[in-house]
Amino acid sequence: MKQGFPPAVRGMVIGLLGGSFDPAHEGHVHITHEALKRMGLDRVWWLVSPGNPLKARQPAPMAERLARARAVMHDPRVVVSGLEAALGTRTTADTIDRLRAIYPGVHFVWLMGADNLVQFHRWGRWRDILRAVPVGVLARPGSGVAARMSVAARAFRVHRVARGEGLGNRKPPVWCFVNLPLNSASSSAIRARGEWKK
Q1: Where would I find the H helices in 15-150?
Q2: Where residue 50 sits, what CATH number does that domain have?
Q3: Is residue 198 part of a domain?
Q4: What are phi and psi of 13, to 5 degrees?
């Protein structure tokens, strides 16, 4: 195990929730707890990304975003990390490839809000992500129909399962859409209100 990397042992099921977390908020906490409960995950790692190639606006400094994420997430089953910066990866597919090599025998599940599934087909090597690990999509306000009708959802529709239980132990490609009580918090709304500044 590399120094500074979260501990994990063979057989564990770990959800990966990536994003800029600019800033982290109660919506992230909510979908994380729902994923832990509904998908049988042992841990969730928040992967606070160095930047987002799909966004023109670059996020606040990494140290500030990590500090904010640690301030809002108080569950011992959740690790807030800057793993992507440590790995030097720029795409989710590359990050997953590296983590699977570093943690043999650990079952990873990629987690995302439904708003991300809408534009998932714009991510680099998005099909490789779905072929590498199970994907758990969690409902987000205003994104349900668009997510279900998205390019990725239609392309992998035969691989969708109805429920999230045991998702991490299924052979990819496999994904699920989990309906849950919605939390309307959003990073863009927090920034728009001037509550989070670079």
Answers
A1: 26-39, 62-72, 83-87, 92-102, 114-118, 126-132, 144-148
A2: 3.40.50.620
A3: no
A4: -115, 115
Q: Range of 19's domain?
A: 13-192
14-48 per-position pLDDT tens digit: 999 999 999 999 989 999 999 999 999 999 999 99
Measured in Å, how far apart are the chain's first and last C-alpha atoms?
34
Both structure tokens of 49 = 């990304």
- Residue-wise pLDDT for 73-109, tens only, equals 999 999 999 999 999 998 999 999 999 999 999 999 9
Nearest alpha-carbon partner for 128 in 137, 120, 140? 120
From CA 190, how far away is CA 186, in angstroms rounded?
A: 6
Burial 74-89 (b: 16+ CB within 10 A, else e): eeeebbbbbbbeebeb
CB atoms inside a 10 Å sphere around CB 150: 20
Residue 5 lies in a domain: no
Residue 145 burial (CB count, 10 A): 10
Q: Under a CB-based contact definition with an 8 Å cutoff, are residues 15 and 35 in contact?
A: yes
Count: domains in the chain:
1
Q: What is the mean pLDDT of the chain?
A: 90
